[in-house]
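Design job #97: recover the sequence.
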């Protein structure tokens, strides 16, 4: 898959551009086109950086990271990067050691997704689930840097669905997300799974939710 040069680290010792260490592409999702003819809905793939590229990162910690969301068209003999959009991250919670977009999931062909943001710090894991809409978002593929004022750029729209801290359960390193089977009553299920990093201090956590009204 083609990746623009702006994502590549420009130096191994004094880096000023490209993805930050261990904050590259964590999420991946595809549209539901397997059972449809390509003339109805071509095969599309979506991913995003876990945090901002170095050249997009503002020095002011009060400015949230500006992640990049990529939209690919997958053909039989060619993969094309269709567009990029600004994904506005939430600010890291107080005391967080890292904060990033861990996963994306396609909801429909109309540009609606779920986004899973995950932070870790002194208080453990903080996980938030957002509904996303890319409709109307500016194509930023010609912007080599997003640093500074971006008031002229329409970002991906976000709506908080669930702050998992409100569930009053111990959260682990949730990184995976997929639709599960249909539940009684017709609602779809949503499954979240954690990565235990092969650590004896962590667990492989599976959480099952009911999606209503999406």
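Job complete. Output follows.
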């Amino acid at each position: 898959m083609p990746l623009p040069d702006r994502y590549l680290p420009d130096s191994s010792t004094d880096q000023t551009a490209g993805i930050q260490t261990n904050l590259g592409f964590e999420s991946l999702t595809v549209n539901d086109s397997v059972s449809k003819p390509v003339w109805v809905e071509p095969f599309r793939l979506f991913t995003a950086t876990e945090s901002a590229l170095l050249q997009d990162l503002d020095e002011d910690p009060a400015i949230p990271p500006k992640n990049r969301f990529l939209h690919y068209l997958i053909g039989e003999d060619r993969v094309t990067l269709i567009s990029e959009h600004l994904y506005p991250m939430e600010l890291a919670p107080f005391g967080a050691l890292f904060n990033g977009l861990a996963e994306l999931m396609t909801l429909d062909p109309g540009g609606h997704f779920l986004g899973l943001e995950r932070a870790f710090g002194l208080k453990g894991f903080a996980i938030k689930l957002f509904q996303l809409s890319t409709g109307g978002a500016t194509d930023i593929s010609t912007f080599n840097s997003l640093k500074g004022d971006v008031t002229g750029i329409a970002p991906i729209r976000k709506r908080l669905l669930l702050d998992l801290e409100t569930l009053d359960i111990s959260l682990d390193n949730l990184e995976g997300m997929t639709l599960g089977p249909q539940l009684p009553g017709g609602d779809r299920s949503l499954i979240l799974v954690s990565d235990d990093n092969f650590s004896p201090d962590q667990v492989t956590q599976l959480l099952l939710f009911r999606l209503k009204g999406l």
